[in-house]
């Protein structure tokens, strides 16, 4: 609700025209994440360096287009996430991942193309990996660290929606030495989630406000 001259006004509804490749007409912002911004995110540093040498540091790994009305406890951020296919060593292409800065905030991810995994760690010790294909959605409750992983051969595209005031804590995963599991090639055309030997546990009492 916006106050103008003492009278409460509300924003206009927005039409968001969303294509299966993730393009969204009506978006208010776009951000792009290149390979160089994912240093230390993949578990295999040697393979990461090889991928940077092969593709270039500026190769795009994922992009996010979104629409919101600015801050406000009732506002939604609605958008698309497009994650390119690929692997770094055995590990499939991934997003940095985060816990919401207001950690009780939930999120919807609805797959519109490709094949991916929503990898999730709860702060109380559980881990989940949900495979998403077009028509399938993950409802990620509050209190779960989450990231997207592309386990297919084409772009993995989802529509997401969360409370705008959720915010993102991207550092919680780095501080923990990565998420609890790695999503890797199973050697048989599929994927499997295996324990991440570098994971040191999440700090408690952080990233909640
Ligand atoms: Fe999120």
SSE inventory with pairings:
Blueprint: E1 2-4, E2 7-9, E3 17-18, E4 24-25, E5 29-34, H1 45-55, E6 60-67, E7 76-83, E8 87-88, E9 91-92, E10 107-113, E11 116-122, E12 127-132, E13 137-140, E14 144-150, E15 156-163, H2 171-175, E16 181-185, E17 191-195
Antiparallel strand pairs: 1-2, 3-4, 5-6, 6-7, 7-15, 8-9, 10-13, 10-15, 11-12, 11-14, 16-17
EC number: 5.3.1.9
Keywords: Gluconeogenesis, Glycolysis, Isomerase
Enzyme class: isomerase
> Quick one: biggest sheet?
6 strands, antiparallel
What percentage of residues falls in helices of 4 or more residues?
under 10%
**What is the first-to-last residue Cα distance?**
23 Å
From the helix content, strand content and strand pairing, which structural class follows? mainly beta
Bound heterogens, unique = fe (ii) ion
């Amino acid at each position: 609700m916006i106050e103008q001259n003492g009278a409460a006004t509300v924003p206009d509804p927005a039409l968001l025209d969303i294509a299966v490749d993730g393009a969204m007409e009506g978006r208010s912002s776009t951000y792009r994440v290149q390979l160089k911004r994912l240093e230390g995110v993949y578990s295999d540093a040697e393979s990461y360096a090889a991928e940077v040498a092969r593709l270039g540091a500026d190769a795009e790994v994922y992009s996010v287009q979104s629409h919101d009305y600015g801050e406000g406890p009732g506002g939604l951020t609605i958008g698309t996430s497009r994650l390119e296919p690929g692997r770094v060593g055995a590990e499939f292409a991934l997003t940095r991942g985060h816990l919401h800065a207001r950690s009780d905030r939930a999120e919807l991810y609805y797959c519109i193309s490709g094949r991916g995994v929503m990898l999730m760690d709860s702060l109380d010790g559980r881990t989940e990996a949900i495979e998403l294909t077009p028509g399938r959605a993950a409802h990620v409750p509050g209190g779960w660290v989450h990231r997207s992983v592309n386990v297919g051969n084409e772009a993995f595209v989802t529509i997401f929606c969360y409370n705008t005031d959720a915010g993102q804590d991207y550092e919680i995963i780095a501080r923990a030495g990565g998420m609890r599991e790695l999503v890797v090639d199973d050697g048989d055309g599929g994927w499997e989630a295996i324990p991440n030997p570098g994971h040191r546990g999440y700090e408690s009492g952080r990233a909640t406000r």
